Amino acid sequence: MTEIPQNKTRRNAIFMKIEEKISAGKIRSRVDELAAQISKDYEGKSLLILVLANGGIFFGVDLLRKIAVPAEVECVRISSYKNGTTSSGTPEIFGNLQPENFRGNDVLIVDDIIDTGTTLRKIRDQIENFGARSVKISAFLSKRSRRKIEIEADYVGFEIEDCFAVGYGLDFAGKFRKLPVIGKIVVPET
Ligand code: IMP
Ligand code: MG
């Protein structure tokens, strides 16, 4: 994604400009569509939804509420951001996932965005190794042009350009996560 210069850090994040890319209404209707598709695809089955915190929480909860098939939820925290804005490229999983919670289950991994693909690939491989019956991925956003690892999400909310996106779970150094829209950070010239 667009690297944010190191001098524009947490302290002056407040001066960043945010340009709206996806409205709250569009987010809602897209989540409804995804939930309907997922409910159809898993008809007659029950789902285990694995939400990747922190970013995936907002999308995960909205999706979970709208999915019509029985669904349980698990949560894991995973982060590859050292200083909040630049990815280290090596996602770290915090806390232990219990293999027996996933064995034999139809698992849907939910995250805010698929960027290089490293995070979702790491977690998907792990869940597959736990002996899940099936593993699919739902990412609210996708930046396909940034992909480094061959992986695609099965359910994508929106494809977006290569930018630093915030809101609806996505943060910039911990900020803007709770914005009800998806915005793009515009770095001021000075
Ligand atoms: P990946 O491993 O490169 O696919 O990165 C996935 C993670 O990086 C996501 O779960 C987000 O937490 C974070 N990320 C990637 N792009 C953005 C962005 O534009 N804004 C905020 N966070 C992002
Ligand atoms: Mg994330």
Descriptive notes:
With 190 residues, this protein is an alpha/beta fold. Helix content is 23%, strand content 33%. It has four helices and nine strands, in the order βαβαββαβαββββ. It has helices at residues 24-41, 57-66, 99-102, 118-129, and strands spanning 17-22, 47-53, 71-81, 87-94, 106-114, 134-142, 155-159, 165-166, 182-186. The strands form two sheets. It has a six-stranded mixed β-sheet with strand order 4-3-2-5-6-7, sandwiched between helices. A three-stranded antiparallel β-sheet has the order 1-9-8. Strand 5 (106-114), helix 4 and strand 6 (134-142) form a beta-alpha-beta unit. Helix 1 (24-41) crosses helix 2. The radius of gyration is 16 Å and the shape is globular. The two termini are 20 Å apart. The site of inosinic acid has 18 residues, from strand 4, strand 5 and helix 4.
Describe the structure using short key phrases.
globular, six-stranded mixed sheet, binds inosinic acid, 33% strand, 9 strands, binds magnesium ion, three-stranded antiparallel sheet, 190 residues
